[in-house]
Amino acid sequence: MELAFDVQGRRQAQLLVAGANSDGTWRVGRAFTADIIIRDPAVDAVQLEFWHDEDDQLWVRDCASTNGSTLNGKPLGADARAVKSGATLAIGTTTLQVYRRDHPIATTLPTQTAPGWSTALGRVPVILAATTVGAATQLFFHYLGFGGEYELQPAVRELFGYGMQVLGWTLFWGIAARLLRGEFVFGPQWTIGALLIGLTPLLDEFVALIGFNLQSLTAYRTLDAVMTAGVLVLGLYLTYSLTTHFSRARRWAFAIAPAALLMVSVYLIPLLGSREPVGSPQTLGLSRPPSLQLRSGVPAADLVGRQARLFDAVTTLAEEDRDDASTAVALDG
Amino acid sequence: MKCFLSPAAASVRLATSNPAARRHAVLGLWLLTLVLASVPARALEGTERFSEQYDLIYQIRDIASAASSKSAIGSGFAISADGLVITNYHVVSNYVRSPRGRNLEYLDQNGNTGPLTLIDFDVINDLALLRRSPPDHGKFFDIAADEPTTGEIIYAVGNPHDLGITLVFGASNGMVEHSYDPQILFSGSLNPGMSGGPGLNEDGQVVGVNVATAGSQLSFLVPAAAVRSLVNGRRTLDPEEFDLEIAAQLKTWQRNRIDNLLNQSWATKALGDRSVPGEIRNDIQCWGSSNDGDDDARMRRLRMSCDSGNRIFIGSRLNTGQIHFSFDETTSLKLPAYRFHHMIGGQRLRADNAATDNDVTPYRCEADFLEQNDRATNSFRRVTYCVRAYKRLAGLFDILFLGEHNGSDTSFSAHYTLAGIEQDLAAAFHERFLATLGWN
User: Fold this and answer.
1) Is B356:B319 a contact under the CB 8 Å cutoff?
2) Is the predicted pLDDT of residue B18 greater than 60, yes or no?
3) Distance CA A317, CA A306 (A)
4) Which of A106, A118, B204, B292 is a plausible cystine mate for A180, CB 3.0–4.6 Å?
5) Could B350 and A282 be called an inter-chain contact, meaning their C-beta atoms sit closer than 8 Å?
6) Burial class (CB in 10 A: 0-12, 13-18, 19+), A321
7) How far apart are CA A27 and CA B90, in angstroms?
8) How far is the C-alpha of A61 from the C-alpha of A26, rounded, in Å?
9) How far apart are CA A89 and CA A97, in angstroms?
10) Cβ-Cβ contacts under 8 Å for B438 (sequence gap 6 or more)
């Protein structure tokens, strides 16, 4: 059974068609995992639930929403109310008219194709499963696939990495699901976003190359800073403009979060110290100028002093370890 | 590649190998028997000659007290009337590295066992001196006064594969040519478990101690002189002092070795248009490679790698003492600068010695660009210097160095590893290395 929803809101004027989920329901709300997505901050993540019974009767109830809903002007509660084709519902600042597929208005719509699995793609368990598989694959290839040559890095770094992955996959599947359901409106921000994602590695390379050819570390550093700032600003704009269905405060929060995460990953986590694999290959990002710990060239004679500091640092580490070991022995004895 | 005759490793290999490999091992043993049987004159002569001395050869066992099961087996032999026994350091290394909860035991030809006490050791020559209690019946092996002459027959005796006393004979090929520490090259097949057993001359005197094999009838003996100096210079070590003693021995050895290296002029080799340090001493060997024959190559690669070959065994997962350096020169042939840089990017730097985080701290690295003297060349030099400290061997460090000189269509990188070295020696070596490259 398919339903058509005529959605009229401040930010949305759409006719959406959706087939029932496997449990015979349609969920309407702001969440991208909803079957009918309403771009209205006054609407709950899932505000309405429609379902049909064996007699093909259509029912609706309000899922304990914050701002409440009405059906044909009467308040709608948690109790099931029968819905006729053409009924009007009001949620938040949006009105919604529901039609069965055989209603004259709905028959003019194109036939919806394969709503089932595109809907499923946006479901949280599916996202979690996909993320788990992705993370497990990475874990396998990174740590186990090479005969245990690599040692595990600190838990904080690991957790952060997987957290970022979950976020990434969630966004990916969410966007894919909306795309497949034909609910996606391509605006300029998507073009910018796609270009940004596609071109970032290339731009990165070019910065390195330009910095290299300029033969000026200052120029390279400036270029790198401009690039980083540009990426952050674009990312901010992108996220802000894509979350129109959120309240203003949440839009800002969502826009700033990735930028903040990026800064944390680049600047703060290295400060916590990383446990490099011992006696195994060390990727030091050689050959290309490093973007963060860049300094002007030093005279060869100055290297000795810099290297002496390394000796002091590792000696302290080793001494701490010896102290720990002797304490353990003392306790043992 | 030299392999220690580690019985633990061998037994693991046998236990976990597939049936085919086990069949091969059995076949190998059978062939060994056949070979020994096919040379009856010498073998029998040897057996007759040394049979009474077999009582002076022990199996050395490292017993984990808690499990009271043997965890490592090697051979050892009586060297004095009052119960001194010689074996390899690596046979007792588990005990030296963690004496708590471990005991050393001997097993003689008559099946008697008894405790052994570790008196002293020499990690550089891989020797350990033990005392057997109660003392032996007064008989012991004499140490030969002279080094074996080339071609002299040596009988290596030991306990391979825990099968009982076995005698292997072969010729002495004199001292190993490219080695800093003297070792006798022996053309016999030493087997796991024979470690620490004596190498005897025709008169039944000890000329060396079985230590390692490189396979195919190439084995190594520690010369008797090292045994003599360990016995004569012995002092009784307390288990608390083991780590200090290992560190002290490594420091003395490394200081002499590096001082000697710094006091001579360094032979250079040509790598492309450059002159780089080459076989700077007899014990350092270099190998080169290039892709010159490949007409389709987009980059020309030249590589030279030099190694001291010394690996001082400290524990099952820790070896040290290496001097290793290598140079790579890559020239773009058909690649635009951008692609070229992409391809040579992300080089890996790796340590050439084995160590785990129980023994060493993580590497701490510092990457610096060297001051540009000549901007016109459109190139830069970058040096990455990494240090890690030994946790239990205070004052010793491992050093990794990578220097790069990259231009728009050429890339040159120089790498060295110094394992188990003190700070001042590392700094002196570094300065000399950069000077030889002309980077100072």
Assistant:
1) no
2) no
3) 17
4) A118
5) yes
6) middle
7) 71
8) 11
9) 6
10) B275
> By the CB < 8 Å criterion, does A278 face chain B?
yes
| pLDDT for the residue numbered A47 | 92
CA distance A100 to A2: 7
**How many alpha carbons fall within 13 Å on the CB side of residue B179?**
19
Which one is predicted more confidently, A139 or B210?
A: B210
| pLDDT value, residue A197 | 62
Q: Which of B369, B393, B405 to mutate to test the interface with A (most CBs of A within 10 A)?
A: B369
Check CB contact under 8 Å for B354 and A279.
Answer: yes
CA distance A319 to chain B (A): 7
Asked if A298 and B370 come within 8 Å (Cβ–Cβ), the reply is yes
Q: What is the pLDDT of residues A219-247, one digit of tens each?
A: 666 776 777 777 777 777 766 766 655 66
Give residue B88's pLDDT: 93
For chain B, the farthest-separated pair of C-alpha atoms sits apart, in whole angstroms, at: 81
Instruction: Indicate the burial class of A226 (C-beta count within 10 angstroms; 0-12, 13-18, 19 or more).
Output: exposed
Quickly state the pLDDT bin for B398 (edges 50, 70, 90): very high
State which amino acid sits at residue B438: G
| Touching B: A residues 85-114, CB under 8 Å | none
Q: Taking CB atoms and an 8 Å cutoff, what residues of chain A touch B404?
A: 286-287
